Amino acid sequence: MTPHPQTDIATGAAVKAADRAHVFHSWSAQALIDPLAVAGAEGSHFWDFEGNRYLDFSSQLVNTNIGHQHPKVVAAIQEQAAKLCTLAPGFAVESRSEAARLIAERTPGDLDKIFFTNGGAEAVENAIRMARLHTGRAKVLSTYRSYHGATAAAINLTGDPRRWPSDTASAGVVHFWGPFLYRSPFHATTEAEECERALRHLADTIAFEGPQSIAAIILETVPGTAGIMVPPAGYLAGVRELCDRYGIVFILDEVMAGFGRTGKWFAAEHWDITPDLLTFAKGVNSGYVPLGGVAISAAIAETFATRPYPGGLTYSGHPLACAAAVATITTMEEEGIVEHAAHLAANVIGPALAEIAERHPSVGEVRGLGTFWALELVRDKETREPLVPYNAAGADSAPMAEFAAACKKSGLWPFVNMNRTHVVPACNISETEAKEGLALLDEALTVADRHTTSA
User: Fold this and answer.
1) How many CA atoms lie within 13 A of 112 on its CB side?
2) DSSP label at residue 176
3) Distances (CA, A) of 451 to 147, 345, 394
4) Which are the contacts of 104, defined by CB distance < 8 A and separation ≥ 6?
5) pLDDT digit string (tens) for 289-341?
6) C-beta contacts of 266-273 below 8 A and 24+ residues apart
7) Three-state SS for 378?
């Protein structure tokens, strides 16, 4: 790896020691982790205290959509801090009002009211609360291949195994299968079949659960951590029609897919769909200061015109976070970052990943949009057996661990989940950097190839 001039091994050791002594990390067995001590970051790179530099193909948690330390956003945070650091949510604040206006201008349809939260999970919590109060119903439907956050309702809505330890089975949540042709639960052979059968399955689920008891259906427009499964044409429109038929609130979770990640401001634009509620976070200000929210339709906003909404947060619409959002959205517009993400998909990332899939027996499928891609790694392309079992741990997950280690050794920081690696760099990564990262990925996949049946 290329050394970075900022090296300070003693400080790095002190940072690591303090972390190990006092920081309790999320989603981790505390004694089994070894966090990297990071000294700094800029653009599409970050580096440790030993000068090892990494090309960030994870955008951290798929949230640094405009990269690290963008000077325009840093300056906006500094200016807001000098002017007004914080104020309670009940006041009108310039940065909050402007952030809401800019977001509402970009959301689809009539989603013109913005309720601010501190992040994506709280956005989902409040969207569910709004839907239940608006409809007077309790049940919420979500897919198995999904992630909606780690708070009480959000973790129950989540489909992946992180739900299991916290699943009370009493939260009013019903899970169903969403479309995913590569591993179709419906024995479909075409996208059209997958769409039709997935919608029939959802319609049956609604019928057997009792449509009069269902408050909402929540979907990630393009599921993120669960695998970046781009929905087939017609699916989201079909869900919209079912919701309209039964008076069910349709919620799209755009926490990961929003703000340029798919090459549109919001992924819903790809299918010309307007939900009743839309949740966002992450890319709204590139994660520089915690911020999330719910974009609310006119009909649901009217529910609370004279009836108080029973929810709120001390830091709702925090001035520093909103100033960062204003600067991020303005910068994305000025620099054409959303269009750049679409360009990378069509001309750099998409074609390169297609070639990589041809070369490597471990790559079963490539799928994605914008700077939002997944490679499904398999032991056998014919049988589609995953490279590691579902929710593998310990020795069972060794092939993916070896692949990730090979990436990091070469200076590429990957996003790895189960048997997949996701290609999710900053939306403004340069073509040169994207090609460099794809070449490093290509090389690291030879490690995964060793675990295939053709090895």
Assistant:
1) 5
2) E
3) 28, 29, 16
4) 111, 112, 113, 114, 295
5) 999 999 999 999 999 999 999 999 999 999 999 999 999 999 999 999 999 99
6) 266/106, 266/107, 266/108, 266/221, 267/221, 267/222, 267/369, 268/108, 268/221, 268/236, 269/108, 270/369, 271/231, 271/233, 271/236, 271/237, 272/108, 273/108, 273/221, 273/236, 273/237, 273/240
7) strand
pLDDT surpasses 70 at 3: no
Q: Which two tokens stand for residue 341?
A: 């993400």
How remote is the C-alpha of 303 from its chain's centroid? Answer: 29
Q: b/e map of 316-335 (b: 16 or more CB within 10 Å)? A: bbbbbbbbbbbbbbebbeee
pLDDT at 171: 81
Q: Name the strand (E) or helix (H) holding 216.
A: strand 214-220
Q: How far apart are the C-alpha atoms of 285 and 317, rounded to whole Å?
A: 12
Q: Please report, for residues 173, 192, 229, 231, 251, the alpha-carbon distance to residue 199 in angstroms, rounded to integers and kept in the order given.
A: 19, 11, 16, 12, 16
Instruction: Please choose, from the candidates 44, 76, 21, the residue with its C-alpha nearest in 3D space to the C-alpha of residue 326.
Output: 76
pTM of the model: 0.96
- What average pLDDT does range 359-382 have in this prediction? 98
